[in-house]
Structures are given as C-alpha cells and as structure tokens.
Amino acid sequence: MCELLGMSANVPTDICFSFTGLVQRGGGTGPHKDGWGITFYEGKGCRTFKDPQPSVHSPVARLVQEYPIKSHSVVAHIRQANRGAVALENTHPFTRELWGRNWTYAHNGQLNGYRSLETGNFRPVGETDSEKAFCWLLHRLTQRYPRTPGNMPAVFRYIATLAEELRGKGVFNMLLSDGRYVMAYCSTHLHWITRRAPFGVATLLDRDVEIDFSSQTTPNDVVTVLDRDVEIDFSSQTTPNDVVTVIATQPLTGNESWQKIMPGEWRLFCLGERIV
Amino acid sequence: MCELLGMSANVPTDICFSFTGLVQRGGGTGPHKDGWGITFYEGKGCRTFKDPQPSVHSPVARLVQEYPIKSHSVVAHIRQANRGAVALENTHPFTRELWGRNWTYAHNGQLNGYRSLETGNFRPVGETDSEKAFCWLLHRLTQRYPRTPGNMPAVFRYIATLAEELRGKGVFNMLLSDGRYVMAYCSTHLHWITRRAPFGVATLLDRDVEIDFSSQTTPNDVVTVLDRDVEIDFSSQTTPNDVVTVIATQPLTGNESWQKIMPGEWRLFCLGERIV
C-alpha cells in the first residue's frame, strides 16, 4: 500500500515538516520505496516534484523538505509498486488539464479489471491502474459536463459516484484537487484533521515530544517529528485566522482527534474548511 | 526575449553544466528574471522543475545544477515576461499529454492576434500567448491525426507548417519534444551543435579556458563555464559512441561551429542525431 498526504489551507502554508515525516516512510521507517511525488498549487499554477527513487535517499525530497513552498493545496504520495514498473511515468501524483485548470490525483490501492476502462481523449502515459482510473474519471467528467461546470460541489458529488464504481474493482483511496478544492475518497484508510486557533499542544505518536501550536510554529509543523529526529523551524508564524486541514493515510499525531473517513465515504475541503 | 535550451542524446546524459550557464542569464548576466523551467524525459515519463523566481536565486535551480538527472531529451526555458504576469502558471515549459505521450513545449517570442486561436479540448491554464499557441498546436494535431500517427517525421513536418502560421503573428522560436524527438523551430535566433567522437577542444566565448572534449568530461560539460566561474566535474565519462546535440538561442562556445537555423527553418533531432 502507498501513503497519501494532502493539505488544504486558507493561507499559503508550507508542508515541509509534514513531508519530512512522509519521506521517512519512503524506504526509511516504511516499505514505500518505489518513488514519491508532491504537487503544490500556487494560484492556478502547480508544480510537481517527483522521483522514482526512494524518498529517503532522494536529493529532490531533501529540497522539498528544506524549501518552504507556500501553497493552498497540496497532494503527495509515496509508492509501493504493485501494478506498473518502478519508473517516472508510473510515479504519482498525476496532473492533467480539465476545464482550464490543473487537476492533480494520487491513488492508494489496487484495482482489478481496470484495463477495459474507457478513457476517451485522456490517454495514460504509464502502465498503472491508477493513471488509467484517473483518465477514466476525467473522461467521464467531460461526458457529463461538456462545458465548464459552475457548481463544483456537485461535480465532486459526481466524482464520488465514479470513485464508488472504482472501489467496486478493488481498493481505491484517492486524493484529488483542482487547486481550490481537495477531495479525499476513502476505500480503506484515510484520516484528516483541521487545525485552527486557538492552536493547542499536540503529542507525537512515537516519541516524547510536545509541540505548542500556539507558539510561533505553523499548525502543521508538528506532523514532522513523527518519523525522524528533526529540528522544528520556529521562524514561521501562525495567525489567529489560519485554518489548515491535513489528510493522511494514517494519523500523524497522538493526542489530537483525527477524523477517520469510513470506507465508501469522502470529504471535500476548500481553503482549509470542510465543505462536504 | 527569453532563452531556450534543448538537448537530444543517444545515451542518457545530464545537462547540469549547460543549465548552470543558462541559469546565470536568469537574473545574473542576463535580463531573464521572470522565472525558468526545465523538463527532463526519463523513458516515457518526464519531470519538470520550475520556479517563477529568477533562476539565479532559485533553490530549485541550484538542485538541478547539482543533481545529475540523465535524460535523452531536455527542454529548458528562462523567461522575460511580455504577455502574462510573472506566475507559476505562466512559466515554461508546458507539458500536455497527446497520443499517450507527454509533449513538452517552450516558446521564445511574442504573438499578436493569438486570442482567437481555437484550442478545442486543450484549454490554457495561464494567460500567456505561448501556452495558447501550444494548445492550438495540439488541437490542430488531433484534428489532423484523430488516431495515433505512425510516421512521426511527417507529424513534425505538419507541426512546422503550424509554426509557420504562428510566425505570421509575431516572433515564434520554439522547442518541442515528445520525449523521443526534439524539434527546434526558428523565427529569429536558434543555434545547435552536435558533439560526437572524436571529441575535440572547445574554447569558451567569454573567458580564456579550453576544455578537451576527449578527456573524461561529457560533451556538453563545456557549455557551463560561459557565464560563471564553476568547476568542471571530471567524474563523468564519454564513450566513443556518445552523440549529444545541444540547441540554444545563442551559441554557448567559441571555436566550435554552431549551426544557425535560419528564420522559418526548423530541425528535428532524435537520440542526438539530426533527422530533418
């Protein structure tokens, strides 16, 4: 199984430390050694850093940990290959343009009977079930909405029915974003938490460290220290208005109440807030 | 005007040093301070590093200089904005999928009357004339070739006629690749050179340094030292079979004979060799 990590925030927020934790699971503390990727949205634009080598050894992953790219929406993935070779074209997330926006997708799970999925004008470049399913989703969206839709929550409700179809073919945990919205669809494991003022103190799951969220850290700094002995950068700042939601395959902190998404359920976030 | 840099090679080759030279022109020795990007193909997959900030100050650019990503095909661009704000979504190169391959495009120049170009299912995400022209090119290709074409040189001949149409609207220097082929279309300035065994000695344009290509450097190492005081990494190796073509807006070395592409002409390279 792969690990997913997503973020939605109302102010551009960096995810360096959260990503540091994830990276350690990519060949460090976890078995997910078959590549990794992370997509940051900055306005309508996005950029993806990816590497088919284990994240724990990747110079690109090191850059992403050290370079605070501030973003409203983030989708990240570390891979344990099942379908498709370990290769750049099979490395998540995948981004395609639809309705003049960049759509970014990452999948955790495995599908059967995916080869017969019709993908229309969206052709997979690699060999994964994941990319094929993404192309099928986009194709179905263009069939349902030949013109740019106005009611985006309705679009995501339709996407949830498509995700449900895919879940019928195996395991389908998904993160999907168009840069404004971040959708989390759960097939087996997916958790989320929204942090907002007043920021409290979080205890990490696997080491004896407490972070005081009301200090100068950003509300997602804490996620870090789970998997690795890192130093927290206190130079970043929260304001009382910051709202940041983090989505992850498994909870990343101990004494906070992460919400579990039940199999077949989904959540939609926009600017840090839960919409659905 | 922006600067273009491309590479086509018969063995996976890194372009760290060539890129180091280009980067210096991005806010260092040159005026191209409005972002930069570089796309590397590794197999069918590709990854793009880009930053809307000047390349000379970009931590991402520093990574690309230091991390030897070996590639058959590379497209790079540094930007001096004319149409479209300085923003990530307006930063070249642009990549879109067509016929199950990633197509990457970078443009140097400025177009008039581009807003009326029909782009079909390929919608621009940003506001540049460049991305609009790219979407139009792809749309025209899907009209001409509804199914995946087999004769790629014929496809590129058709692309050249489309590029000619765009040249009628202003200045249109272009690099375009599907990962196997690298096409260079010239509207004003574009040069190329193919390096192969026996590798000779090159004198740099703006300093008194000679590089012996027959030593252990790779054939494109030399490009580096043009704009900056860097050290050459002699740990990489050439073999007698290496063929590497470098394409650049302006020649990067002195005593080598760079070929100028005349306005309205184009070249097509595959695995380092000129095809057209």
Give structural notes:
Two copies of one chain form a homodimer. Chain A has 276 residues and is α+β, with helices and mostly antiparallel strands. Chain A has a domain at 3-108 and 173-200 and 246-274: Glutamine Phosphoribosylpyrophosphate, subunit 1, domain 1, CATH 3.60.20. Chain A is built from four helices and 15 strands. Chain A has helices at 16-25, 59-66, 129-144, 152-167; strands spanning 3-13, 36-42, 45-51, 71-78, 94-98, 101-111, 170-177, 181-185, 191-196, 201-203, 210-212, 243-248, 259-260, 266-270, 273-274. Chain A starts with a strand and ends with a strand. The A-B interface holds A 42-52, 59-60, 63, 66-67, 87-91, 96-102, 121-126, 142 and B 42-52, 59-60, 63, 66-67, 87-91, 96-102, 121-126, 142. Chains A, B: Residues 2-272 form the Glutamine amidotransferase type-2 domain. Chains A, B: It comes from Intestinirhabdus alba.
CATH homologous superfamily grouping of the domain at 3-108 and 173-200 and 246-274 in chain A: Aminohydrolase, N-terminal nucleophile (Ntn) domain
Largest contact between chains: A-B, 35 and 35 residues
Strand content of chain A: 25-35%
* Shape label of chain A: globular
Question: Assembly type of the shown chains?
Answer: homodimer
Q: Please provide the count of β strands of chain A.
A: 15
Distance between the termini of chain A: 26 Å
Helix content of chain A: 10-25%
Task: Detail the poorly predicted runs of chain A.
Answer: 206-212, 215-236
Protein name (chains A, B): Class II glutamine amidotransferase
Keywords (chains A, B): Glutamine amidotransferase
Pfam families (chains A, B): GATase_4
Domain Glutamine amidotransferase type-2 (chains A, B): 2-272
